[in-house]
Amino acid sequence: MMERKLSAIAGLLLLCCTFTDQTHQHKVQKPTLTSQGQDCTAIKDSSPNAQSGIYIIQPKGVPVPFKVYCEMLADGGWTVFQRRTGGEVSFQRNWAEYKHGFGYLEKDHWLGLAKVWALTRSNDQKSILRVGLWDFEGGSAFAEYRDFRIGDEAAAYQLSVGTYKGTAGDAIRGAYSGIDQNGFGFSTKDRDNDGCSPCIFRDIAGRNAAHQRVGRLVVQPLWLSQPPWRLAPSGGQRGLGARVHWRRGKARPHTPYKPLK
């Protein structure tokens, strides 16, 4: 069985239209994208010397190909669905924006929940999620999950992960006792699916994690806690129950994904 690789980077993680000319009734259509493979893993398998960059993929069952950034590493191709390195791109977005994606593929971006669902929905192919974390002083860590998938929009893109390995700690199942994000839906500022009401942070109760701000830590929407996973400095405040939190001081995340073989 093939295993697909997905990645979320945090540290540094097409619309085809037809226009009608009312005078000449002349239709102009944008060029059709041609798929280079089902995902970055397949592209790397077929072209071992492929370099990291933007590629066009078409997962099984998806009618229209789309562009992604592929991290072509020694262990294979990883499809990046989130990258956040700084403040150039705002991650304070609504549900529609998280569904369809935003940002710049070569820079900070969120690929889109609909695309991540398309990449992970196949029963014939399992996926690996890798979260890479590093800080500004050269420190790094990673968290890797097998059997990664998310549900469809009707299920609020519910997160599901299998066994964990890595050096960053299993933050999805909780950096703190009693906290487990596995099986929760995605939340944004305009749609609350975090299952937390009220949310408790230490001795503070709030509405829900999608709307909380605690000190220097911005609590943003999501199961994977809205991959913007912004982490608190060491010794600082440590996050809310409805958010994924890697207790790695100043480290930030990078999140790729890959199908398994």
From TrEMBL:
Localization in the cell: Secreted
Coarse class of the protein's main subcellular location: secreted
Swiss-Prot/TrEMBL keywords: Coiled coil, Disulfide bond, Glycoprotein, Secreted, Signal
Gene3D superfamilies referenced in this protein's UniProt entry, alphabetically: Gamma Fibrinogen, chain A, domain 1 (3.90.215.10)
Lineage: superkingdom: Eukaryota
One BP annotation, GO: positive regulation of heterotypic cell-cell adhesion
GO MF terms, alphabetically ordered: extracellular matrix structural constituent; protein-macromolecule adaptor activity
Cellular-component GO terms for this entry: fibrinogen complex
Leader sequence residues: 1-25
Positions of the UniProt region annotated as Disordered: 234-261
InterPro entries, A to Z: FIB_ANG-like, Fibrinogen-like_C, Fibrinogen_a/b/g_C_1, Fibrinogen_a/b/g_C_dom
Domain Fibrinogen C-terminal: 31-199
Amino acid composition bias (Basic residues), ranges on this chain: 244-261
Protein name, as recorded: Fibrinogen C-terminal domain-containing protein
